[in-house]
Specification:
This protein is an alpha+beta fold. It contains five helices and eight strands, in the order αααααββββββββ. Helix content is 27%, strand content 22%.
Length: 207
């Protein structure tokens, strides 16, 4: 009878610990917020961001939703089109931005209504290094808000000229000059039926 020998059990497959998985999830979620916020601050659509970075719109969307695991090369391409350094996109040195740290005031001269009669445009009015809100003036189609969207923070939309239809969740209203809506941006929202002379002031809180 052959001598019996102990045979070592096969090693279990390597699985990330809950702590490691949680840290990775948090990092991916933070990256998604930074990319989405930077794109909206720059007034870029997904298509424009993808075209400028050489990535596909679907891939950019996956990065913003936290479902992609982008390479450093991809992030460097994104950072360039968003006007950021790679370390800024990755959040290095951001620290805690929950306080109202001072930053240089930004005085902006916006184009007069008479000079905006044709074409489209987005004018960013956000001060550099601001962390609590973003603001911009939009002439014409409202960038990525022309399709259903949701994101962190709050949003204030003010119609300065023209007309549009704003839908927030299950509620929709036609907005005319001097009409405004303040809502939780985590609710799905969309701006449609825009008139040719539409001019919007959009303010978003920290995301």
């Amino acid at each position: 009878m052959p001598e019996s020998r102990d045979v070592p059990a096969p090693a279990p497959p390597t699985v990330d610990s809950p702590v490691e998985a949680s840290a990775a999830d948090r990092a991916t979620a933070q990256l998604a917020k930074v990319v989405a916020s930077a794109r909206r601050t720059a007034g870029l659509t997904l298509a424009a961001t993808a075209a400028g970075s050489g990535l596909s719109p679907a891939y950019v969307s996956q990065i913003e939703s936290g479902s992609a695991n982008p390479t450093v090369r991809s992030l460097a391409q994104l950072a360039k089109v968003l006007g950021l350094e790679l370390h800024e996109l990755l959040g290095a040195g951001r620290g805690d931005t929950s306080d109202n740290s001072p930053f240089p005031a930004r005085f902006t001269t916006l184009p007069g209504l008479s000079a905006m009669s044709d074409g489209q445009g987005i004018w960013n009015m956000t001060a550099h290094d601001a962390t609590m809100l973003h603001s911009r003036l939009i002439r014409g189609e409202p960038s990525d808000h022309a399709r259903p969207i949701r994101h962190a923070g709050e949003e204030l939309v003010v119609v300065l000229a023209g007309q549009c239809r704003l839908r927030v969740s299950d509620t929709a209203r036609v907005l005319n000059p001097a009409d405004a809506c303040h809502f939780a941006a985590s609710e799905e929202h969309q701006i449609t039926q825009t008139s040719d002379d539409l001019l919007l002031l959009v303010v978003l809180t920290k995301e």
